[in-house]
Amino acid sequence: xxxxxxxxxxxxxxxxxxxxxxxxxxxxxxxxxxxxxxxxxxxxxxxxxxxxxxxxxxxxxxxxxxxxxxxxxxxxxxxxxxxxxxxxxxxxxxxxxxxxxxxxxxxxxxxxxxxxxxxxxxxxxxxxxxxxxxxxxxxxxxxxxxxxxxxxxxxxxxxxxxxxxxxxxxxxxxxxxxxxxxxxxxxxxxxxxxxxxxxxxxxxxxxxxxxxxxxxxxxxxxxxxxxxxxxxxxxxxxxxxxxxxxxxxxxxxxxxxxxxxxxxxxxxxxxxxxxxxxxxxxxxxxxxxxxxxxxxxxxxxxx
Length: 303
Fold this sequence. Notes:
Blueprint: E1 5-9, E2 23-25, E3 36-40, H1 47-52, E4 58-62, H2 71-76, E5 80-82, H3 89-105, H4 107-116, E6 135-139, H5 143-154, E7 158-162, E8 173-174, H6 178-184, E9 187-190, H7 204-210, E10 215-218, H8 227-236, E11 241-244, E12 263-265, H9 274-293
Parallel strand pairs: 1-2, 1-3, 3-4, 4-5, 6-7, 6-9, 7-8, 9-10, 10-11, 11-12
């Protein structure tokens, strides 16, 4: 019996050795019998690819993100989408808090001073800011935002959050106006989902409202922030500092950040723990098994 054809896009290297029950193909392909596709959310499966795969019935996303898929078009085509919800949100929240600490305690500058051999006592870097008492604005109170707020609370910070609508089960104060949240906050941590509705949600106006002493942290998607405006604000001093794990283009061109001061940059580490990757891979394999067995999917996309 022949194995079912599975489109894997982008290629997933070593993980593909676990897909022994499938005939793995990569894009571009002229195969017309592909009924399932495996992708990473921010890469996705384009409408053109969907159109070229007439038998496609299921898209399995490795991780929680689905922003690389036109959900309305997929629904119109009768394609079910699964993802890895509640697998890595705690890990992403850890990175958000790490970036917040790094910007307050100048870890990036401190390490550079040490490695460059320019450490001159008594203070290797300028006096830093303590976290206790800072006002933290969280943009997006989904699983990641809630985990970030829970962690930030433990540092003795005051927390408010913004989203498209209030939530009855949210423990923290809701601010329906993003501009007002930015004006209030010392730290703005962006946890919003990345799709067309949130593109450049953190605009130049929001960045300037956060101000010359403000800290902007982004662990959602790069396009949620106006990256050009962010870099300009860092260079001019209109924004105090930034901690970024995600970028508009990944890998981000390093020249964009060459002269951007007061920032800590990490290469999309967010959900990449060993534990999350293992759980995510198990989720993928189980969803693929259930799809081909005609069983209820483990984690279909809600809504």
